[in-house]
Amino acid sequence: MAAIKLNELWGFIDQSGKTIITPKYEEVGSFSDGLVAVQLSGKWGFVNKAGKEIVPIKYDNAGSFSEGLATVQIIEKCGFIDTSGTVVIPMIYDEIESFSFGSSYVSLNGEWFYFNKKGERVEGKGLTDF
After folding, report:
1. Cα–Cα distance, 115 to 94 (Å, whole number)
2. Number of domains making up the chain
3. Which residues share a beta bridge with 48?
């Protein structure tokens, strides 16, 4: 799949050049875990490779999936959802980074620390989920 832009809107084509997802999005991310973040009317959500909306387009911002979780943001607070759209880690953080080696680096009230996929604080990056 490759992103295409037509009349200022984004969609996707397959390797043969056939349109798979009609250009209708203001912005798009990259596919990861079978889903891609898309922006429509200023809000973000996720669609699958067939263009079906899997995670509702309701977030102020969204990142790509990494290790089964994606960053999402509503009203300047960030958290994580899984590929079904379920909030796994609540949107209480000021800033967050994608998961890498089982942990994420987050900021809460000016303090930066790592946590695992259960939202539990851990000492240092990459110490969980091996």
Report:
1. 14
2. 1
3. 35
Give the tokens for residue 58. 């309701």
Place 119 in a pLDDT band, splitting at 50, 70 and 90: confident
The predicted-structure confidence for 48-99, as pLDDT tens digits, reads as follows 999 999 999 999 999 999 999 999 999 999 999 999 999 999 999 999 998 8
Q: Is residue 33 part of a domain?
A: yes
81 vs 2: CA distance, rounded Å? 24
Range of the structural domain that residue 6 is part of: 2-122
26 close to 44: Cβ distance less than 8 angstroms = no
Q: Which among 109, 106, 79 is positioned nearest to 122, based on CA atoms?
A: 106
Edge to edge, what strands does the sheet with 121-122 contain?
95-96, 103-108, 111-116, 121-122
Return the DSSP state at 29.
Answer: -
Q: What CATH number is given to the structural domain containing 53?
A: 2.40.128
Could you give the dihedral angle defined by the CA atoms of residues 56, 116, 73 and 54, in that order, rounded to the nearest 10 degrees? -10
pLDDT band at 129 (very low <50, low <70, confident <90, very high): very low
